[in-house]
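Alkaline phosphatase, Salmo trutta. Tokens?
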Amino acid sequence: MYRSREVHKMDSRYQEKDPLFWNTWAQHTLKNALTLQKLNQNTAKNLILFLGDGMGIPTVTAARILKGQLSGQSGEETQLEMDKFPFVALSKTYNTNAQVADSAGTATAYLCGVKANEGTVGVSAAAVRSQCNTTQGNEVTSILRWAKEAGKSVGIVTTTRVNHATPSAAYAHCVDRDWFSDGEMPAEAVQAGCKDIARQLFENIPNIDVIMGGGRKYMFPKNQSDVEYPGDKKHFGTRKDGRNLVEEWTNRMKNKKAQYVWNKRELLSVNPNNVDYILGLFEPGDLPYNLERNTETDPSLTEMVELAIKILRKNPRGFYLLVEGGRIDHGHHEGKAKQALHEAVEMDRAIGRAGLITSIYDTMTVVTADHSHMFNFGGYTPRGNTIFGLAPMLSDVDQKPFTAILYGNGPGFKVINGLRENVSTLDYQGNNYQAQSAVPLRMETHGGEDVAVFAKGPMAHLLHGVHEQNYIPHVMAYAACIGQNRDHCMSSGGASSLSPALPSLAALLTLTRLLC
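Tokens:
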């Protein structure tokens, strides 16, 4: 196997020396691009948003290289699934009160269509973080709600807690992203009538069809032991109000085709044809990193996404699905680039799986990030250099080696006897190696540059150029004829003016060539 991969690399390198190789590839790409002149103006029956939390453009590039290297290639020439999307834009990520954004204010932008303050979810910029009395009257609704009100099925799938910043903006209105349960809220906020995010998950939007992720402990009474880790107090329930939100959900849904699951075995035993509603809470907190996942007990993001789509797509009116690769962000914050990049590769795998079980003719899929990170890679590394490897030269200042991957700030800053640590003495390719950083911080910070937006499917061409981040849900709602501007969906005779999704054989063949 290893030898065949090396032969493949050598063959590829040999081809690249011939100008015909590059010219042929470019001409093929040009022909595919010309097919895009006929725009897909169908009505989007289905909407999928893949959100890579913290997946800035350097992360996308590094994940591409990693994906290729995992299959024995040099990596640089590899295509991610998101790379195959025909339309790409840039998104400006700043919050109304922050040049460098956080995940809560950005989630409000790309889900509710309104920019907001950092640390707040589902409320406008008139709301002030942690001030409960600024909530009422400043709530803003999300595209998930717009889709539900239009009769579509809706779902949330995340590798973080289901009440974390990104998913919570889809259903909650909260002035503090950290109010996971009432156990994390100040007493005065509870007394003033503000609701914790876990409670809002079950109360604000009736019957969200699919909920999958972590966050189990926020659903159970304080000090109730966890089903998976019964002896570990840090995983005990956190709710001070004594409510068991899972039990309440189960009782409320008992006359519907609903199922609660908490491990991979239960998840994979679900027959999507027999289940209309699923609540999957697979960890007390966030799901484990994909590199550390127990493949027997913990589902992958791809496995969760596949089941979610198979349940949601049964609705003849279609669906809206939010998918978050949420632990890309956590890996970067910890300075653990290997964890972050493997999370990004897994999300790309989920994007590919979703593409196989949906149609580009009636499903709009958007892939983007909420913000970037202080992550980058460089150092004049040669072609095919392992993405986690060393640069090919020593520093001309301290005469020590350095890795290609570096952080602008974070926990990887280490000084030994007044000098930069010599990385060649460390396992710099280890899963939990913390890449060196320029400035010491316990947790690395977000980056402030624009992030990419990849789009395919109906009306995807409306995502182009440089946009404010809050533009994204407006485009998706327009494509699906939901939300505030639906006039374009109806002709004077009352029929839909957008084209129905009826692909021709020729169009299908064109699509096959485009995606290969």
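The radius of gyration is 23 Å.
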